[in-house]
Amino acid sequence: MATLVTGGAGYIGSHTVVELQQINQDVVILDNLSNSSKAVLKRIESITNKAVTFVEGDILDTELLHSLFKQYQFDSVIHFAGLKAVGESNEIPLHYYKNNVYGTLNLCEVMAQHSVKNLVFSSSATVYGDPETVPIKESFPTSATNPYGRSKLMVEEMLADLYRSDPSWNIALLRYFNPIGAHESGTIGEAPNGIPNNLMPYITQVAVGKLKQLSVFGNDYNTIDGTGVRDYIHVVDLAHGHLKALEKLNSQPGLVTYNLGTGQGYSVLQMINSFEKATGQAIPYQISARRAGDIAECYADPQFANQELNWTATKSLVEMMEDSWRWQQNNPNGYQ
Ligand code: NAD
Ligand code: UDP
Fold first, then answer.
1. Using alpha carbons only, how large is the chain's radius of gyration in Å?
2. Residue 126 CA to ligand 1 centre (angstroms)
3. pTM (two decimals)
4. Ligand nearest to the CA of 30
C-alpha cells in the first residue's frame, strides 16, 4: 500500500515525504512543478537513502489520475497541491478556483471511482478570517477575505458534503498556522519565486544580502508591540502532524478538523529579534503601512490535535530560526 502525495515536491510536501519515507511508507509524488523544482527529489533521496517515486503531472488531468490509481495500490492521499499566494489570487481568481477547488473535486472523483477514501487536506488558518478572539479553536466561525482563502473554505465545505453523502470516507482537514523553518540538513526548505510575500523568507533573504531591508507592515495593531502576531510552526512538526493524521484515518474517524499550530503567538518585531539573536545577523527594517487584508493576531488552540492525534509541535522558535537560516545560507537561490 502506498500514499499518493499531491504537491509533494513543494515546501510542506517535501518535508512530509521525508518523514513518510523515514517510517518506511511507500510514497508516490504527483506534482506539476508549477511552484517547485525537480532538484528537490534528489535532496529527499539523499536525506532518506530511499528512491523517490515521482510523477510530473497535474491533478486536473483525469486520465493521468486514473492511470496512477490503476498502477499503484493507494490506501490514502495527502493533498498538498494548490496555489497559495493571496495577492495573486486577487488578480487571477478563476485560476485559483480551477486549480484548488476543481482540482480537488477531480481528485476526489477519481479516488471514489477507485474506492480510495482516506484523504488528508491542506487547509489553512486563513479560513478563520479575522477571529474575534484568540487562541482559535476549530469550532470558531469561518470566513474568507480573498479568493485563496475562499478556495480553501469551498474545498472544506465540498469535502464535508462528500462525507455526509458517503460516510465511508475518512477526511482530515488540517488547518495550518504559519509554517517556517526547514529540514535540519539544510538541503530542503522553502524556495519562493521572486520576492517573498511571507515574513520568514523575507527575513532570511535580507540576512543573506538578496534584499536590502524588511518592511514591517504596520505597528499600530492592538498587539504586544503593535506589529502583527502569528503562530509560527516548524515545517517538520507540521510534517509529523500529517503522519499522525494518516494514522488517525486508519481508525475511521469520518470527517475531522484539526488546528496544526504551536499555540504561541509572536509579533513581527519579536521574530526579527529572535532571528538576530539566533543567527547573529542584523535585520535592517522600516515600519511601513499595514498590508491590505492583514489581521492583528492569529494563533491556534492546538489542544484538540494534541489530544486526538497524540501530536504536539516540539521545535522551539530558536530552532525554526536556525533551520531557516541554514537552508537560506546553503541555498541562496533556492533550488536553482
Ligand atoms: P508549495 O507551493 O511549496 O507546494 C505546493 C505544490 O503543489 C507545488 O510543488 C506545486 O508545484 C504543486 N501544484 C500546484 N498546483 C498543482 C496542480 N494543479 N497539480 C499538481 N501539482 C500542483 O506550497 P506549500 O507551502 O508546500 O503548501 C502546500 C499546501 O498547504 C497548499 O495547498 C497551501 O495552500 C497549503 N497551506 C500552506 C501554507 C503556507 O504558509 N505555506 C499555510 C496554510 C496552508
Ligand atoms: N509581514 C511583514 N513584512 C513582510 C511580510 C510579512 O511585516 O514583508 C508581517 C505580516 O503583516 C504579518 C506577519 O508578518 O503580520 C506574517 O505574515 P505572512 O505573510 O508571513 O503570514 P500571514 O499574514 O499570511 O499569516
1. 19
2. 15
3. 0.99
4. 1
